[in-house]
Amino acid sequence: MIHAYLPQGNEFQRISLDPGNPLPEGVIWIDLIEPTAEEEKAVDGMLELDMPTREEMQEIETSSRLYREGDVSYLTANVLYHAETPLPQTTAVTFMRTPRALVTLRYADPLSFRQYVARAQRQPGLRSNPDAVLCGLLDSIIDRAADVLENAGKDLDGVSRDIFGYTPQGEHESADETDLEDAVRKLGRVEDLTSRIRDSLVSLTRLIAFLNLTMAEQRGTKESRTWLKTLARDVQSLNEQAAFLAHKGNFLLDATLGLINIQQTKIIKIFSVAATVFLPPTLIASIYGMNFQHMPELDWSFGYPLAIGLMIASAVLPYWFFKRKGWL
Fold first, then answer.
1. For the chain, how big is the Rg over CA atoms in Å?
2. Does domain 2-262 match CATH 1.10.10.60?
3. Sequence-distant contacts of 292-297: CB under 8 A, at least 24 apart
4. What is the fold of 265-325?
5. Distance, CA of 171 to CA of 176 (rounded, Å)
6. 103-118 confidence digits (pLDDT tens)
7. Confidence of residue 327 (pLDDT cuts 50, 70, 90)
8. Higher confidence at residue 77 or residue 62?
9. Residue 231 pLDDT
10. Rounded to whole angstroms, how far apart are CA atoms 33 and 35?
11. Is the Cβ–Cβ distance between 273 and 322 less than 8 Å?
12. 8 Å CB contact between 155 and 186
């Protein structure tokens, strides 16, 4: 699918292109979404590109993701999508900066792209030229990452309250085993999400640095270079926030596992105390349950109540001792 965008008065008009159609005049952004081989070939011919394949976009070497061929700069970054679902994902997006238009190649539909289009309809400065479109898209991707990190921080705060049992009134309620298991699952999802955001931010850091250098060499507009510096600072701050959330998540995971161990220890302690309490009565009952002929106590008239009393006393005394020591 090929979408071409061009400013038309107060609107940012989108046109769907077929492979055989010529490129309309005034187009500043061409967006390819899961293109066919024919569509890729058509755009290559329009702008004299050598579009990377999907396999090449997945490569992790910096030289394979950020490079220049003549007047065209090829920039690939990982962009987060499906962040609200249980399975957040990242997808490789390639930005091709040409003198005539910006070309984007992607195989998913991140929310940040739709947010940029909506913003560009309201703000003409975001669609003034191809570099403005590129900076606007990067800004939208970074804003989206910031929103996801904010939500992840709120999720961690909620998990923290669940783990340590603090209510809004400042009261404390002990979390049961079910709550702790649910907390571990939530922490796993937040960790997966933050790790994907950090992966995206690392790729954006490299992309912005390369793009800033390219614009300096190719005399990019002053506004775009200033914007890139702002984006670089934003990405750095988000990297720090993501690192903080990762550290907090690890702390909460350690705390959760520690509480689970404490609960298991309490259960084991109860069984140990029960075994200790009932061991002496069992011993007494076993002794007087033997069938030897010569056992003087068997002839006592008070032998039975005496044995019962011994069993009760041997059970109560260990329990009283443990209770006095504070072990129960």
1. 34
2. no
3. none
4. Methane Monooxygenase Hydroxylase; Chain G, domain 1 (1.20.58)
5. 16
6. 999 999 999 999 999 9
7. low
8. 77
9. 92
10. 5
11. yes
12. yes
